[in-house]
Amino acid sequence: MRKEYDFSKGKRGAVLKTPPGKTRITIRIDDDILQWFRDQVHAAGGGSYQTLINTALREYMTSKKQPLEATLRTVIREELSRYGKKAAE
Question: Residue 77: how many CB atoms within 10 A of its CB?
Answer without folding.
Answer: 13
